[in-house]
Automatic annotation (TrEMBL):
Active site per the UniProt annotation: H201
Superkingdom of origin: Eukaryota
Annotated SUPFAM superfamilies: LDH C-terminal domain-like, NAD(P)-binding Rossmann-fold domains
Domain spans labelled Lactate/malate dehydrogenase N-terminal: 26-169
Keyword check for Cell inner membrane: no
Protein name (record): Malate dehydrogenase
Any Gene Ontology biological process: tricarboxylic acid cycle
Transmembrane segments: none
GO molecular-function terms, A-Z: L-malate dehydrogenase (NAD+) activity
EC main group: oxidoreductase
Length: 342
């Protein structure tokens, strides 16, 4: 009986690895040795839809890769440094590239304060993606996301490889936080507490749409407090880490959730997968906002359908009004940076 069970298990493992190998994807993580990069890579190693997890950073990636490679899931893990064309080797053949490379905030800093350092890092990594994996889906975690996503898009346009369906700003952490904070307030299970969050990924550009959650009734003071907490939740972590950086573990969870959803849509062929994400969007085209996060249905080529804003309460309309000029400024800043060295 024991033998039969083992034989069955071995056979199904073989069948599993054959089908996984046929459909699975190479996923690259740039900035993989950092605070987000390491736990994100750990979570991705568990996904059987990944055949090859390719890690890149300025230091320590061979060690991280060797460590992860002992986990008994199908993905092969490799780690590269800048020498020996490490970035090229990391990116060639990648179907998904996740970018958490860049400096995090310290107490008192806004995400925009990171621009001067991170804009150049993202531009250079995007240039490498355009050269070595021009058809990959690029998932930008590096802040300020409102500006770094337009930088990736402009770099890709310069190389004639821009496909708006394949460039994403990862705003999942805002949705994860909203779900958690509201479930604490309402004493509900976070797994069943879905809050739509639209806009961008910083301060006033983060817009929770509580009115769109059926059955959720918040009094005035909870509405204000929860809105503020979702917009500035990242500051709680920055303050608590006291100079040690910003959210890494919750961000790794959120980044893995988004990457896994994209793998479900692209590799596993699942339909109806919806994640909020900051993409090139027509939702606020009339207001001149080129990039915006709403719920997005993911498909084999990335963005399949961008959902609209839906109905907004007066409170939410006011939040949107406040977000628009800030978002436009952030987007323009990314655009200008990408073009200033032309
Ligand atoms: P970290 O400093 O711990 O790690 C960043 C890693 O990037 C380091 O290992 C560093 O060596 C690497 N790196 C720097 N330049 C690089 C380059 N040119 N090529 C490859 N790797 C490079 O920072 P952490 O905490 O992991 O944060 C990373 C970024 O993610 C920050 O910009 C942070 O603001 C952002 N972030 C975004 C969130 C979101 O919701 N989208 C949430 C939390 C953080």
């Amino acid at each position: 009986m024991l033998f039969a069970t083992r034989t069955l298990a071995a056979a199904s493992a073989r069948a599993f690895s054959t089908s996984a190998a046929q459909n699975a994807a190479k996923v690259a993580v740039l900035g993989a040795a950092g605070g987000i990069g390491q736990p994100l890579s750990l979570l991705l190693k568990a996904n059987p839809a990944i055949s090859h997890l390719s890690l890149y950073d300025l230091f320590n990636t061979p060690g991280v890769a060797a460590d992860l490679s002992h986990i008994n899931t199908p993905a092969k893990v490799t780690g590269f440094l800048p020498d020996n064309e490490g970035l090229k080797q990391t990116l060639e053949g990648a179907q998904i590239v996740v970018i958490p490379a860049g400096v995090p905030r310290k107490p008192g800093m806004s995400r925009d304060d990171l621009f001067n350092t991170n804009a150049g890092i993202v531009r250079d990594l995007a240039t490498a993606c355009a050269q070595y994996c021009p058809k990959a889906h690029v998932l930008v975690i590096a802040n300020p996301v409102n500006s770094t996503v337009p930088i990736v898009a402009e770099v890709f346009k310069k190389h004639n490889v821009f496909d708006p369906r394949r460039v994403f700003g990862v705003t999942t952490l805002d949705v994860v936080r909203a779900s958690r904070f509201v479930s604490e307030n309402q004493d509900t299970n976070p797994a069943d507490t879905n809050i739509t969050v639209v806009g961008g990924h910083s301060g006033v550009t983060i817009i929770p749409l509580f009115s769109q959650t059926p059955g959720l009734k918040l009094n005035e003071s909870d509405l204000k407090a929860l809105t503020h907490r979702i917009q500035y939740g990242g500051d709680e972590v920055v303050k608590a880490k006291n100079g040690g950086g910003s959210a890494t573990l919750s961000m790794a969870y959120a980044g893995a959730r988004f990457t896994n959803s994209l793998l479900d849509a692209t590799v596993n062929g699942k339909k109806g997968i919806i994640e909020p994400t900051y993409v090139k969007s027509d939702v606020l085209a009339k207001e001149g906002v080129e990039y915006f996060s709403t719920k997005v249905e993911l498909g084999p080529n990335g963005v399949e359908k961008i959902h609209g804003l839906g109905e907004l309460s007066a409170h939410e309309q006011a939040l949107l009004k406040e977000a628009i000029p800030e978002l436009k400024k952030n987007i323009q800043k990314g655009y200008d940076f990408a073009h200033k060295t032309e």
